[in-house]
Amino acid sequence: MTSDLTTRWPVHHVVASIAEEASGPSYSVPALAMATADLGRKVAIHTVRGRTLPSKEVTVQTFKQDFATTPVLKSMLLSSDLRQTMMQLPGSSIVHGHGLWLMPNVSSAAIGARPDISVIHAPRGMLGANALRFSRQRKRVFWHLFQKQAAKHVACWHATSEKEISDIRDFGLRQPVALIPNGIDFPNLKARSVRPERRTVLFLGRIHPKKGIDTLLRVWKSIEDKLPGWHLAIAGPDDNQYADEYKRYIEKEGAKTAKIVGPVYGSDKVQAYRDAELFVLPTLDENFGMTVAEALVQETPAIVSHGAPWEGLETNDCGWWHAIGEAPLRDALLDATSRTDEQRMALGANGRAWMQREFGWPSLANGMEDVYSWLSGQADQPDCVVTD
């Protein structure tokens, strides 16, 4: 049993924000929406912090935030207008929620109480054990006051990796789970500049302790004297003034070749990946890690901790996948920087080829389309859905 264009239920994505380009969901949610819209399904995004998308086929509705200047409450991104819109959705609709611990995530799940609405929800890495340790008490209170009751109405969870399926089950959620990884775009490659006198290891992402930046800086300080000509660039938007903390560490410890360079967007971000000889992500917990895929697409080999599900770096011969901790990161960095330029370029080419084989948006959108059709009762359960 398969659905046709005239009977497909519309999909309403609900995500707190798509405004920050450096945030994973700000890229992956619109990309997924646009890819499924290309298959003929009507798609909309509802958010508190929006931006204009390049696709006219996807409607973006940005809602006014309540209590936008009130301490504590403003961080919850509450929007009564968004909640009201959810409650008034027409029947025979699918709601695809993204993220946890914010009020839009509650609104998107609670609507599943209606029998004519089917909800699929993506935790987006927020149920990982290490992720849950940050603001633990706040998340515990939020779960019991708001999210727990709403989560009961989720028909299916959306995981982007096998690891995230485990996170969902470990948290005690028993509904079916659809495994659909994030995809990636494949822009044309720009010329890579080779500068033997100044090689770069790049971290790019949100500046937050979860990303393992403190570990990275300590390790880099301990080995930089062994790496003449190498520099560490830490790029990305600041989160709660952690960038200032890391700058103080660099100044205090005298890390001569490490620098916090701030956020980079658009073509500047692409060029940052392309100009780096190596990409590094020593994260404590990721459900996917979009920046790893972005680096590989630009033919930049990656060094990633076991906190992210990137064991394929080694099986596809395009990087290093190391245990969390200073010693494993140090070993990986020393190995990676000891390779010749030609060896690193070969690893990078392997990485882009792997991304093209498995992470193109069109094929992933087809998988999500099968899940949507199943949720609306118009197709059989697809193989990507697990129920145990």
TrEMBL record:
UniProt-listed Enzyme Commission number(s): 2.4.-.-
Record-linked Pfam families: Glyco_trans_4_4, Glycos_transf_1
The keyword Glycosyltransferase appears for this protein: yes
UniProt keywords, alphabetically: Glycosyltransferase, Transferase
InterPro entries, A to Z: Glyco_trans_1 (IPR001296), Glyco_trans_4-like_N (IPR028098), Glycosyltransferase_grp1 (IPR050194)
Occurrences of domain Glycosyltransferase subfamily 4-like N-terminal (ranges): 24-183
Keyword Transferase: yes
Domain of life according to the entry: Bacteria
Domain Glycosyl transferase family: 194-353
MF GO annotations: hexosyltransferase activity
Protein name: Glycosyltransferase
Organism the protein comes from: Erythrobacter crassostreae
